[in-house]
TrEMBL record:
<keyword id="KW-0964">Secreted</keyword>
<feature type="domain" description="Glucose-methanol-choline oxidoreductase N-terminal">
    <location>
        <begin position="14"/>
        <end position="327"/>
    </location>
</feature>
<feature type="active site" description="Proton donor">
    <location>
        <position position="486"/>
    </location>
</feature>
<dbReference type="InterPro" id="IPR012132">
    <property type="entry name" value="GMC_OxRdtase"/>
</dbReference>
<dbReference type="InterPro" id="IPR036188">
    <property type="entry name" value="FAD/NAD-bd_sf"/>
</dbReference>
<comment type="similarity">
    <text>Belongs to the GMC oxidoreductase family.</text>
</comment>
<feature type="active site" description="Proton acceptor">
    <location>
        <position position="530"/>
    </location>
</feature>
<comment type="subunit">
    <text>Monomer.</text>
</comment>
<protein>
    <recommendedName>
        <fullName>pyranose dehydrogenase (acceptor)</fullName>
        <ecNumber>1.1.99.29</ecNumber>
    </recommendedName>
</protein>
<keyword id="KW-0732">Signal</keyword>
<comment type="function">
    <text>Catalyzes the single-oxidation or sequential double oxidation reaction of carbohydrates primarily at carbon-2 and/or carbon-3 with the concomitant reduction of the flavin. Accepts only a narrow range of electron acceptors such as substituted benzoquinones and complexed metal ions and reacts extremely slowly with O(2) as acceptor.</text>
</comment>
<keyword id="KW-0285">Flavoprotein</keyword>
<feature type="binding site">
    <location>
        <position position="93"/>
    </location>
    <ligand>
        <name>FAD</name>
    </ligand>
</feature>
<feature type="binding site">
    <location>
        <begin position="101"/>
        <end position="104"/>
    </location>
    <ligand>
        <name>FAD</name>
    </ligand>
</feature>
<feature type="binding site">
    <location>
        <position position="243"/>
    </location>
    <ligand>
        <name>FAD</name>
    </ligand>
</feature>
<dbReference type="Pfam" id="PF00732">
    <property type="entry name" value="GMC_oxred_N"/>
</dbReference>
<dbReference type="Pfam" id="PF05199">
    <property type="entry name" value="GMC_oxred_C"/>
</dbReference>
Length: 552
């Protein structure tokens, strides 16, 4: 049941309080309420996702930026981007970032997960051990244009019964696809065809899989919270309500954090209320929201907290440190394909065509709005050892990518959304003030560790030049890169006895009891992937960890 006000809540006694019903929070809300005698309260700052057309229709997702469904964050000025600040989108709605994201479905490499296991000393975070969760969240469905997906993916690596639909985009530019696949055959090596980039080895050129199904976005709020789950008598979802702090619960020995302070207001003047969980508070507020809440409750670097007037209650200097994001830039070329009519080619600039596309989507959920962008192939590749900063490889292993090219084409142009996917740079999330309604300082520190651009390409928009110098390319990257919205790592898990890190491998906050973190912030390294799949994986496993901890 969804509530807009705490006054309407039927019960004030809950086993679990989940903070943030985003990608991970929705998984937990579903899985924990499978146990009928658990009463779960979920507190989400954003509104309900139901009926939000821009979220439902994949091709309209671009309209969600800078809306009420976005936290509207901006980074601090980035030295690596020649002093520019860039937008830093985060979902502010049920389903969180999975309700606003680009729906690309990629899991990363097996060595990404094996590195999590190695770093945390916990083998159950390895690729092989996680296989049940890799499949559990996924429900692969046929593409919306009805074609047979054989030859475009390997069914052995997919789940077919899970709540998150995945599939291929409807082919909009078949002649581009033919040419890209022909180029991959011709070039081989780094660009060889890879039947399934979600097998654990992403490298090569392969078909783009997305979290859509039947022409609609499939996100955590639609997949994990369909109406029958929302109707469960033990699930209580409070929307438009912000958690300001987690509080120490009186009457216990030690450091027990099971109370959440929240408000339906949007500034310090509004009254706040406190509810206490009888078992745990689970922080799933994402890689910005989670450290923001932890820092406001006085958990972080005690010196930094004191500087903004917050009384430190627990010295955990890793909170907010280590955010790692993928910088994104676009490289493109003009094309002149004459054997492709490309009916929808001018969609983004032609209002009549756009109206026609929406009519088609409304009729049978097909057409160009049934996909987010016009891209069918992605390349994942590595750079030569000598290009790496100081010769040190920041990727998790030889089957991991250093960069990604998401190829988007029409008859007249091809563009590559290019990302550095194993970045060496690490930033920070910190507090500007002690007011929880003020946005945190988000510093992803893009390109702060890189010294040379990763690869050479013709660049577009103009000037088009054939032999750009390294200095030109470096300036191009610094002047045009933005966030690919994949930040992780701000409450990273490390071994139980480690002096660094924020949570233990069971995701419980270090040096405390009663508070667990389950979201993208717990990964100590960013996978070489768009990050939602790894969040579904971690959240599914976390649900089992929680159930086991309370012996359900
Ligand atoms: C614009 C965009 C495009 C992306 N594109 C892709 C893509 O194509 N493919 C891909 O794999 N990944 C993509 N990602 C990344 C991926 O969506 C995220 O990594 C993942 O969804 C994060 O999940 P999470 O549970 O950690 O956080 P979120 O899903 O962001 O959930 C956090 C939730 O907590 C809520 N919250 C925060 N603070 C508070 C508070 N104080 N009180 C109450 N609630 C709070 C938020 O409103 C939100 O609902 C994209 C992300 C964005 C933003």
């Amino acid at each position: 049941m969804i509530y807009n006000s705490p006054e309407c809540l039927p019960s004030l006694i809950f086993d679990f309080i989940i903070v943030g019903e985003g990608t991970a929070g929705s998984v937990l809300a579903n899985r924990l309420t499978e146990i009928p005698y658990y009463q779960d309260l979920v507190i989400e700052a954003g509104p309900n996702n139901e009926g939000v057309l821009n979220s439902i229709v994949p091709g309209l997702a671009v309209n969600l930026a800078n809306s009420i469904f976005d936290w509207n964050f901006t980074t601090t000025p980035q030295a690596g981007l020649n002093g520019r600040s860039v937008e830093f989108q985060r979902g502010h709605v049920l389903g969180g970032s999975s309700s606003v994201n680009g729906m690309v479905y990629t899991r990363g490499s097996s060595s990404d997960y094996d590195r999590f296991a190695r770093i945390t000393g916990e083998p159950s975070w390895s690729w092989n051990a996680l296989q049940p969760y890799v499949r559990k969240h996924e429900g692969f469905v046929p593409p919306v244009d009805g074609r047979n997906p054989a030859g475009e993916f390997d069914s052995r690596f997919h789940g077919f019964l899970g709540p998150i639909h995945t599939t291929f985009a409807a082919l909009l530019s078949p002649s581009i696809n033919t040419r890209i696949l022909a180029a991959s055959r011709q070039l081989q090596a780094d660009f060889s065809f890879n039947l399934d980039m979600n097998s654990g080895t992403p490298l090569g050129t392969g078909w783009h899989q997305s979290t859509t199904g039947n022409g609609e976005r499939s996100g955590a709020a639609t997949g994990y919270l369909p109406s029958n789950v929302r109707a469960r008598p033990n699930l209580h979802i409070l929307v438009n309500t912000r958690v300001t702090r987690i509080l120490q619960t009186p009457g216990h020995h030690g450091f027990v954090m099971t109370s959440a302070e929240f408000t339906t207001g949007n500034n310090q003047q509004f009254p706040r209320r406190v509810l206490t969980a009888s078992k745990e508070v689970i922080l799933s507020a994402g890689s910005i929201g989670t450290p923001h809440i932890l820092l406001h409750l006085g958990i972080g670097d005690e010196n930094e907290l004191a500087k903004v007037g917050i009384h430190p209650v627990l010295h955990l200097p890793g909170v907010g440190k280590n955010p790692t994001d993928h910088p994104l830039f676009v490289v493109g070329s003009v094309l002149n394909i004459t054997d492709d009519a490309d009916f929808w080619g001018d969609l983004s600039t032609n209002a009549t065509l756009e109206a026609e596309a929406l009519q088609l989507w409304n009729k049978n959920k097909t057409g160009p709005l049934a996909v987010f962008r016009r891209f069918d192939q992605i390349v994942w590749a590595r750079v030569a050892q000598f290009i790496l900063p100081n010769g040190v490889d920041p990727s998790s292993g030889p089957n991991s990518a250093h960069y990604e090219l998401a190829l988007e084409g029409s008859a007249t142009s091809i563009a590559s959304g290019s990302s550095i996917v194993s970045p060496a740079s690490r930033g920070s999330v910190s507090l500007a003030t002690n007011n929880p309604f003020d946005a945190p300082l988000i510093d992803p520190a893009y390109y702060s560790a890189a010294s040379r651009p990763g690869h050479r390409e013709r660049v577009y928009p103009p000037p088009l030049i054939n032999n750009p110098s390294n200095a030109f390319l470096e300036d191009f990257l610094r002047n045009t890169s933005s966030s690919n919205a994949h930040a992780i790592g701000t409450a990273a898990m490390f071994p139980v006895d480690a002096s660094w890190g924020v949570v233990n491998p069971d995701l419980l906050l270090k040096k405390a009891r009663g508070l667990r973190v389950v979201d993208a912030s717990v990964y100590p390294f960013v996978p070489c992937a768009h990050t939602q799949a790894s969040v579904y994986i971690i959240a599914e496993r976390a649900a089992d960890i929680v159930k086991a901890a309370w012996a359900a």
